[in-house]
TrEMBL record:
Highest taxon listed in the record's lineage: Bacteria
Residue ranges of every copy of the 3-hydroxyacyl-CoA dehydrogenase NAD binding domain listed in the record: 5-184
SUPFAM superfamilies: 6-phosphogluconate dehydrogenase C-terminal domain-like, NAD(P)-binding Rossmann-fold domains
Record's protein name: NAD-binding protein
Pfam families: 3HCDH, 3HCDH_N
Domain 3-hydroxyacyl-CoA dehydrogenase C-terminal: 187-283
Length: 284
C-alpha cells in the first residue's frame, strides 16, 4: 500500500516540517490550519527551509522548490481531508484543542484513514478516545527540524492495531525515516527524559548556578551533545516546553515535573525562542 495523500493538521513549526518532508518524498499534502495568515507564513517558511537545506545538503540531488510547494495544498477547509489516506496532527499541546480537532477530522476522513498524533506528551490512548477509530490511532513523535532528523518515536496506544502500525511503518519508510516503537505513557521515552532535563536546566539558570551559555557548554563539551538543553528549548519553543511539562505534571501528579517559575515567566513575557526571535538566546 502506497500512501499518496497525507493530511497535515496544524501549520506551526512541526506541521511545517512534516509537510515539507512529505512533499519532498513525493507525497501530495493537504496542510490545514484555522487562519489563512498562518498558512501564508507556513508557505514562506517552507520555501526558506528548502533554500537553506539546499545549501547544506551533501548529495548531488537538487531540491526543486517549485515542485515541492506544488505538492502542498494550503487550506483552512478541513473538508479537504476527506481525500486523505493518512493524517498527521500537530496542533498545540492542549487537550481541549486536540479533542476538538480529532472529533472534527473523525467525521470527515475516510473510515480506513489512519490518524497519527505528533504530540510531545499527551497519551495516545486518550487521543484515540476522542475518535470512533481507536484502533487506527497511534503516535508519531517527529523531531525538529523534521526533514533533517532520520528517526521518530512511534507510540502504540492501548487499541492501536498491528495493521495500523504496519501502515505507519510503510509511510515512514516512504519519508526516509527510521523508527523505534514504544508503549503509551505520558511523554513516552524521549520527553519524559528531555522535559525533565530542560526544566532542571531552567532551574539552574533561575538559581544562578551558571549562565545559559555555560549550562549548554557543559552538555556539549562533557557529553558530546550537539545542542545544550536551553538551546534545545529555544529550538522547540518555550511555550511548547511549558505545555509538555504541564501535561507530565498533570498526568503523573509528581512534583518532579513541576514547571520552573522562570520558564512560566518567560512564556508569559512572550519569549518563545527561535520561533519569535528571543528565548534563552537572541536570534536575528
Amino acid at each position: 500500500m502506497k500512501i499518496q495523500t497525507v493530511g497535515v493538521v496544524g501549520a506551526g513549526v512541526m506541521g511545517i516540517g512534516v509537510a515539507q518532508n512529505l512533499a519532498q518524498t513525493g507525497h501530495d499534502v493537504i496542510l490545514v490550519d484555522i487562519k489563512a495568515e498562518i498558512l501564508d507564513k507556513a508557505q514562506q517558511e517552507i520555501k526558506n527551509n528548502i533554500r537553506f537545506q539546499s545549501l547544506f545538503q551533501k548529495t548531488d540531488k537538487t531540491i526543486n522548490l517549485e515542485e515541492v510547494i506544488n505538492r502542498i495544498e494550503f487550506s483552512t477547509d478541513y473538508k479537504l481531508l476527506e481525500n486523505a489516506d493518512f493524517v498527521i496532527e500537530n496542533v498545540t499541546e492542549k487537550w481541549d484543542n486536540k479533542k476538538q480537532v480529532y472529533s472534527l477530522i473523525d467525521a470527515i476522513c475516510p473510515a480506513d484513514c489512519v490518524f497519527a498524533a505528533n504530540t510531545s506528551a499527551i497519551p495516545i490512548t486518550r487521543i484515540a478516545s476522542a475518535t470512533k477509530r481507536a484502533d487506527k490511532v497511534l503516535g508519531i513523535h517527529f523531531m525538529n527540524p523534521v526533514p533533517m532528523k532520520p528517526m521518530v518515536e512511534m507510540i502504540r496506544g492501548y487499541h492501536t492495531s498491528e495493521t495500523t502500525i504496519e501502515i505507519a511503518q510503510k509511510m515512514l519508510a516512504q519519508m526516509g525515516k527510521e523508527w523505534v516503537i514504544v508503549n503509551d505513557s505520558p511523554g513516552f521515552v524521549s520527553n519524559r527524559v528531555l522535559m525533565l532535563t530542560i526544566n532542571e536546566a531552567v532551574f539552574l539558570l533561575q538559581d544562578q548556578v551558571a549562565t545559559a551559555a555555560d549550562i549548554d557548554k557543559i552538555f556539549k563539551g562533557c557529553f558530546g551533545h550537539k545542542m545544550g538543553p536551553l538551546e534545545t528549548a529555544d529550538l522547540i519553543g518555550l511555550d511548547t516546553i511549558l505545555f509538555s511539562i504541564e501535561v507530565l505534571y498533570e498526568n503523573f501528579n509528581d512534583s518532579k515535573y513541576r514547571p520552573c517559575p522562570l520558564l512560566k515567566k518567560m512564556v508569559d513575557a512572550g519569549l518563545y525562542g527561535r520561533k519569535n526571535g528571543k528565548g534563552f538566546y537572541v536570534y536575528q
